[in-house]
Amino acid sequence: MDFQFSEEQSMLRDTLARYLADHYDFEARRAAVQSAAGWRPDCWRAFARELGILGAAYPETLGGLGGGAAEHMIVMEQLGRHLVLEPYLGTVVLGGGALMHSSPELAAQWVPAIIGGEATAAWAHAEPTSRYCRHDVQASAARQGNGYKLSGHKRAAVGAPFATHLVVSARTSGARRDRDGISLFWIARDTPGVTLREYPTFDGLRAAEVLLDNVQVPASQRIGAEGEAFALIEQLCDEAMVALSAEANGAMARMLADTIDYARQRKQFGVPIGTFQVLQHRMADMYMQLEQSVALTQVAAMQAASAPQARAQAACAAKIQAGQAGAFVGQAAVQIHGGMGVTEELAVGHYFKRVTAIDLQLGSAEHHLRRYADLLYPAQAAA
Questions:
Q1: What is the pLDDT of residues 261-274, one digit of tens each?
Q2: Per-residue DSSP letters for 103-135?
Q3: What residues have CB less than 8 Å from 17, skipping those under 6 apart?
Q4: Is the distance from CB of 21 to CB of 14 less than 8 angstroms?
Q5: CATH at 76
Q6: What residues does the Acyl-CoA dehydrogenase/oxidase C-terminal domain cover (predicted)?
Q7: What would you report as the CA-atom Rg of the chain, rounded to the nearest whole angstrom?
Q8: Which of 178, 172, 298, 210 minimizes the C-alpha distance to 246?
């Protein structure tokens, strides 16, 4: 496999890295977390209008640059290095991805608005009792005239407080855990009957419980065919797992760099602690964990267009390693920094919180280890 970036991909990475270095330092991020808005709309507009990164992964027919999963990976890694709060995952990967894959009419209408920074989206699929089961959907979508009436409760919709639209899953037929009978809908956040209970997350983001009370949605806002959304949900979640793994890689790279710098400066017994062999070994182990995660994420990005089983296995492998490596690198970074590693004033603790949240998002390392085994041995999984 060729893991070299093209000239265009390298330019995308370098342009975004320079912008974030100039405009998104740790103190600016802390100020945004503590603000009423909880994010930086000015940066989102810059992503769209100055940098053009929101369209990097979309086809040219929709106004994008013709990229794909590799471009998502490149962007998310840079966002992870700076703990960016803006909703790239929910809007570009999941929201726009859902429209692009299954709804040409909706995609033609809304993907250009996403690329232009005018529309943002949040993924509202998980429910209070579903845990990581993707086909456990109790929210209902009953046919009513030329549309649907949606009712239900969606939990932990990251980015929902500042989203213009929600991608909502609901059951149009079947029992609670049936794979058939699930549909996806593109719903404006201000639609009557949609209520958000907003809250901050421990890693600095904003999320919401989404309550649906007889929400009227026209059939034209359904994404894809009725009752056939599960395959699309699987694909979108696998793509999002790769993007999250790339974000974790960026965060781990920053923790490793900060730890090396600290070890060069902090002195004990009159010498920098970085000269102690045991700490050198620990930082070498941090580097190896990071590089393994980067490699598996690259493989998963290259497998994004493969057959569903190959795609899912690669995504699982990347998410498993990102979760395990994130825990190792984060714990080692905090330990080498000592007590100050968990203070609010030092960046490393915030990065550790973010990689911990990434591990839990869309399934933990333990969950995907089991899923990987089930994909390898489907007969045993069925038994």
A1: 999 999 899 999 99
A2: -HHHHHHHHHHHHTTS--EEEE---TTTTT-TT
A3: 78, 81
A4: no
A5: 1.10.540.10
A6: 242-373
A7: 21
A8: 298
